[in-house]
Amino acid sequence: MKRFRIGRWLGRTARVLAGLLVLAGPACQPTPPAPPAPWLTARLLDPGAGRDADLRRLRVALAAPAPAELRFRQLRRFGIYQSYAATPDSGLAPLRAAARLGETLHQPLPLEQASVLGRLAELHWRRQHYDSARLTFLHAARVLATAFPDSAARAAFRVVDGHRGAVGVNLAGHYANAGQAWRAEGRLPAALRCYDLARRAYQCPPDSAPQKLGGLAWVHTLLAETLHEQGEPALAASHYEQALAALRTQRRYNWEDAAQEWATTLNGYAPYLLPTRPDHLRALAAEPQPELSRRLQARPTDRDLLAHASALAVLEAQGCLAARTRATGPALARAAMLLPRLRAAAGPEFRVELGYYELSARLTQLQAGWVSRASGPPAAGYAARVQASHDSVPEPGRRDRLGMMLAREWMRQGDYLAAAALLRPLSRRHAHIQEPQALSQVLHLLAAAYARQGWYDSAYQAQGRAMALADTLSGRQQRLAVADAETRYRTSLKELRIGELTQSGKQEHQVARWAGLGAAGLALALGGVALALRTTRRLAARLRTAQATQNRLYSIIGHDLRAPLAAFEGLATLLDYYRRTGPPDPAELAEVTAEVRQTTGQLTGLLNNLLHWAANQSGELAYQPETLAADELLDEVAALYTPAARARQITLQVVVLPGLPLLRADRNMVLTQLRNLLGNALQAAPLGSTITLAARTADHGLELLVTDTGPGLSAAQLAALRTQDASTGLAPRLPEQRGTGLGLPLVRRLAERQQGSFRLTSTPGQGTTAYLTLPLAGS
User: Fold this and answer.
1) Which Pfam families does the record match to this protein (predicted)?
2) CA gap 742, 553 in Å, rounded
3) Does 54 lie in the same domain as 30?
């Protein structure tokens, strides 16, 4: 018992002395703080050390006092270890504690802090908390961007976990992962912005070439996939080509990694190339194969090389089959020879990881297409073998992507029954896990497969579900856009308020300092106070103006959006009545269609005016002048409103004299002005009347005229419309006015922005004429 007490006392004394030595280290010399404990340094230099022993030592170290930097390193190491354990969530608490402690260090450790935040974001991603993952990834990117603001600073390397890492590569990775989180939430424009930041970070020289090129290819592939989801195939193909160009350069540094990424990128690029450029796909797949064959001769059982060679052989065979070349048979034979070698080299434990089952399914499908092209429909066993290989993929995400790829290939080969057999369970899974974007694509493909088989009822149901999902996704994107606009608006108000408070604080501090300078400085201090008061009043007036604008905007949204939405609700009730009582007669259906078109036009016009007005108020509306012809602008606007005019039996007449000079203006701004003026004229014109759109030369430019034969406006009404609310910049509503008050102020603001002018003339009982004057080209 006595020996035990003495041993315990000696151990406590040793720990206290060790702590004192650690604390005394920085005071003895002005160099950076003392290094961590020897076992921690050994772990950094020896990755093969036992993780369990490190965890036990970390628990003991965390129970004792320690300096802030050492405690940060201990928490970081402990959290990373726990995140790789059987229960990864146990690493959340120490990683969060490390992140909070890292913010308070006197000597920041940006790379270590970013690694903590990155691992914490990965845990959030694993739990499908995509918003938390996105915010944490962006926080890590801000830490690195603040510590290393330019390319010269990012060129410096630091040791992180025993490995050298480039700052630019880590920064780009955090941006790209944040974009992945945006994409998982369905916010594709925000994801594209993050991907573009990652691309710029990878392209910022100087940096680690092999990592930079591989990451740059990865980011270009992410950009291409996201642009494809947005429906922009041309831009997606451009980014795929840039990814392949980066991989060609990477081969000089790391050939095998480049070959693997080459096959992965081609898998995503293949759906674009197969319908239009199958020969290009075939050439791209064959490009790295000579060097790959040479390496396989030296290492015939290397499973990674066999996986790359098999993937490229399958892609080459797919391109040959789509191009209908004689090389299809030899290409299929090469792929069929490589796959058994991959199966034997990989073994059961690596077949899933190396994609053996995906390659087997695709090769079997290509063999079925070759047989059907050569000698008629293939045996049913091909589809069963493809389905069996598809079902052997254990990971749901990989199995879903493979199913879509196989279904598209079955559709291309004309086997619609096999395509439908793959798409039906895929649609049920996406509906169960609530992935509307992917479900919409599956339903469109399933409807096409049903229609090609003659199952028109099933095709109609699938297409109806797909269209309903498309409407839901469109509405979601609109709501997200409105939410983003409101967020930016609120942020601008907060920045204005912060600026006001900052300015006021600076002025107060300046006044307090001047107060002690004596008689000579007193007058200067009083002048500063007066300046501060004027600045404060000006900022307060701007704040009141912004508040009034916000209130008017909310009033417009609440009042003017209610009527179209109520009309849509009534139309829904009417359609439900038709569904229960039977189809209506053509006349009633034509009335419903006209009402839907009119309501949609009103809603679209209101939203366009709101967006243009908000952009003009915030200064974000770019002015891009170009040379334009007046007759083309008037004809385009008249064609846009012809259906609405016919519905009201109104004639639209365009009168443009030949030989008019060209004008210089922003096309989008002029079209917005003419749409507002013609929309107002259609509201005012009586049934059976005529609206005239004309152009003529004026003293200071070219005039565009919109004339109606409505009831006209009195002098008092014209004077009211020429004025604007001083707080909101909007025109006041007249008692009989149905608009929002946005149209005419927007026309006037856009005219001033283009160095033009706008005016109204009207005669009661005869009609109103709007004059829009714009500068001539070359003036």
Assistant:
1) HATPase_c (PF02518)
2) 10
3) no
Long-range contacts of 334-340 (CB under 8 A, 24+ apart): 335/310, 335/359, 335/363, 335/366, 336/363, 336/367, 338/306, 338/309, 338/310, 338/313, 339/310, 339/363
The whole-angstrom separation of Cα 131 and Cα 110 is 23
Cβ neighbours of residue 148 closer than 8 Å, sequence gap 6 or more: 110, 154, 156, 167, 171
What Å distances lie between residue 494 and 143, 482, 656, CA to CA? Answer: 23, 18, 50
Closest CA to 515 of 524, 502, 506: 524
Which of 520 and 293 is assigned the larger pLDDT?
293
Q: How far is CA 310 from CA 331, 352, 355, in A?
A: 11, 14, 10
Reported confidence tier of residue 558, pLDDT bands at 50, 70, 90: low
DSSP notation for 287-334: TTHHHHHHHHHH-TT-HHHHHHHHHHHHHHHHHHHHHT-TTHHHHHHH
Write the CATH number for 751: 3.30.565.10
542: enclosing H helix or E strand? helix 519-560
CB atoms near residue 367 (< 10 Å): 19
- Measured CA to CA, the distance from residue 605 to residue 637 in angstroms comes to 13
Amino acid residing at 510:
Q
Give residue for tokens 């004394």.
13
State pLDDT tens for residues 38-91: 333 333 333 344 667 777 788 888 788 888 888 888 888 888 888 777 666 777
* Structure tokens, 577: 């009545």
Q: Of 186, 159, 148, which is closest to residue 172 (Cα–Cα)?
A: 148
Query: What are the phi and psi torsion angles at 148 (to 5°)?
Result: -130, 80
Sequence-ordered strand ranges (E) for 34-177? 157-160, 163-166
Rounded-to-integer distance, Cα 651 and Cα 462, Å: 42
Beta bridge partners of residue 654, listed in sequence order: 693
What radius of gyration do the chain's Cα atoms show? 35
Residue 537 lies in a domain: yes
pLDDT tens digits, one per residue of 338-369: 888 888 888 777 777 777 778 888 888 787 77
**Which residue is listed with tokens 């969530």?**
89
Phi-psi sector, 15: left (phi>0), alpha (psi -120 to 50), beta: alpha
Tokens 């929002």, residue? 740
Asked whether 691 and 637 are in contact (CB, 8 A), the reply is: no
CB contact burial 133-166 (16+ within 10 A = b; e otherwise) = bbbbbbbbbebbbebbeeeeebbeeeeeeeeebb
Tokens 């908390």 found at? 129
Total number of domains constituting the chain: 4
H helices of 433-455, in order, are 436-453
Together in a domain, 587 and 661: no
Contact 312/269 with Cβ under 8 angstroms? Answer: no
Q: First CA to last CA across the chain, in angstroms?
A: 104
Which uninterrupted H or E stretch holds 109?
A: none
Structural domain range at position 15 = 1-34
Distance of CA 459 to the CA centre of its chain: 32
Mean pLDDT, to the nearest integer, of 293-298? 87
Residue 553 covered by a domain: yes
Q: Is 669 helix (H, G, I), strand (E, B) or coil?
A: helix
CA distance 58 to 77: 8
152 lies in some domain: no
CA distance 157 to 207: 9
**How far apart are the C-alpha atoms of 542 and 477, rounded to whole Å?**
32
